[in-house]
Amino acid sequence: MTEGATGVTGQVTPQQFHDTAGVRDWRVLGDGVSTYFRTGSFAVGARLVHAISELTDLDAHHPDVDVRHAGVTVRLVTITDDHFGLTGRDVELARRISAVARELGLPADPSAVQHVQVTIDALVGPEVVPFWRALLGYVDRAGSPEDLIDPGGRGPSFWFQRMDAPRPQRNRVHVDVWVPYDRAEARVSAALAAGGRLVTDAYAPSFWVLVDAEGNEACVGTAGWTGPGPAPVHRDAHGQPVA
Questions:
Q1: What is the pTM of this model?
Q2: Is the pLDDT score of 243 beyond 70?
Q3: In whole angstroms, how far apart are CA 171 and each of 63, 119, 166, 220?
Q4: Contact 11, 85 (CB under 8 A)
């Protein structure tokens, strides 16, 4: 990441995004960066969307917007043939959208955002992925052989976790829930209080592995940790470092 006359440019890691000035309204999740603006009515939300639509250069890089009665969720992500993640364009657009919301007197509540991912253990990924791609009508994520995304940006992403051998006493499909870095511990505590059990927090705050009362697995993950202590090394479900 570099800093030029117009601001941040190039690819941006989750940690770099959160360390950048002017984006405190936003949180990096597993599929980009998101925030939620509390509007209180559909009409006010529509005014916010209209104001966002009047920003310049949106044809070159546009936000995904979800309008509901109580608020508006905005997601930013850069998608190219070889990159699915954050760039300087997302940083600059996040700043501009926050400025528009402030002008309308609308508060941001980034604690309200999350992203859900379905993870499937695959021993023969090249044979499994095409079935799910066709069934869901999804597309490959930036050419990845193990990630599928909804081209409409609505449904959960699917990750096909490469397995060398079946794991005993483990479901082949589980859910990953990506939450804001400053909400993860509260979400884990709530799940445990609701009858869950902690399998491991060895990779926290990158992710925690939990199970329900019958052993169905789920993970709570974060990106761009800025909490106390050094930034963690983010790891995949094999425990291997990831960018």
A1: 0.87
A2: no
A3: 35, 10, 10, 17
A4: yes
